Amino acid sequence: MWSDTKEAVQKKVGDVHTRIMKKNYASVPNWWFHIILVTMLALSLLTCEGFGRQLQLPWWGVLLACSMAMFFTLPIAVITATTNQQPGLNVITELVIGYLYPGRPLANVAFKTYGYISMVQAINFLGDFKLGHYMKVPPRSMFVAQLVGTLVASAVYFSTGWWLLTTVENICDTSLLPDGSPWTCPSDEVFYNASIIWGVVGPLRMFTKYGNYAMLNWFFLIGFLAPVPVWLLSRQFPEKKWIKKIHVPVFLGATMAMPPARSVNYITWGVVGVFFNVYIYKKHKQWWARHAYILSAALDAGVAIMGVVIFFALQSKDIIGPEWWGLDMDDHCPLATCPTAPGIQVEGCPVF
Hints:
Helices cover 63% and strands 0% of the residues. It contains 13 helices and no strands.
C-alpha cells in the first residue's frame, strides 16, 4: 500500500488508458478543485458557527475533521482500489471528538460527517472518475457531470428526507413493530445510537478505567499486529501463493456493516461475490474482465431504482404484496428471540 501511495503522489502511475486519455483530452485544472474546496470549507464553517451554533461543532472541529478526511483519503483509496473493501473512519472520528468535546451529540455527528463521510464521498467520486477513465469519457465532462449531479442529488435527498419525515407516520420508530411503520431506518438508527454512545456518554466513561469496556482498547493493538503473522509466513514460504491472498484488513473490515445489516444481507452478498469472482473469473475470464465492473454498478443502480419504483407503484398505494419469507424483518433465527435468563421456558426455546 505504501509503494502504491508513493507512486500516486509522485504521479508515476501510467497505463495504456492514461496515455490515451492524456493524448486525446485535456485534464481538469487543479484550481477547479481548489475553488470547490475553499467554497465548501467556507460554507461548512458558516453552517457550524452560524445559525445559533445548533450543530454544537466549533470552527476548529470543522478544520480538524476536514484535515483527517484529507489525510486518510489517499491511503484508504488505495486499499479500496486494490481490495474492493473500504475501511471506515467513523469510529476514529467519533473517538477523537468524543474525547476532545464530550457531552455534545450533535457535534459528534457533525464531526463524523465532515471527517468520515467527506472521505467516503471523495473515494466515490474517484471511483466515478476511474469508470470514466476506462470508458474514455473526457475528464472535464466527468467533472461537470459530478458537480451537477451532486447539486441535484443533494437537493433531492434533502427534499425526499424532509417529505418522508413529515408525511410517514411513526417513521423510524421500531418500538411500534409489527403494527407501526415499515420504515425502520437501520442505518439512521445506528447513526443516532453512535451519537449517544460517543457524544452523550463519551469514550472517557466507556473505554477507559472509568467505564466497563476498557479492555476493548487492546483491539487497536491486535488489529495493528494481525497482518504481521501473514506477512512473515509469506516471506518464510514464498512458494505458497495462497498465503499472500490472506488479507487481514479485509476480513476485519467486513464487519463494519454489521450494525445496520442483517445476516441475509451478508449471505446474498457472499453468494454473488463468490459466483462472479471465483467461478466466472476462472471459467469466463474475458467476460469477467469486460463486464464485472459494469455489472457491479448496474446492480447498485438497480436496487435504488427498484426501491423508488416499488414505493411509488405499490407501497404508496398501500399494496404491500404477498407475504413471504423474504419480507420478514428478522434473521429467521428463532433462538435469537429466546430469553437467556435461566429457568424461563418458552415454547420452541431450549431450557438454560
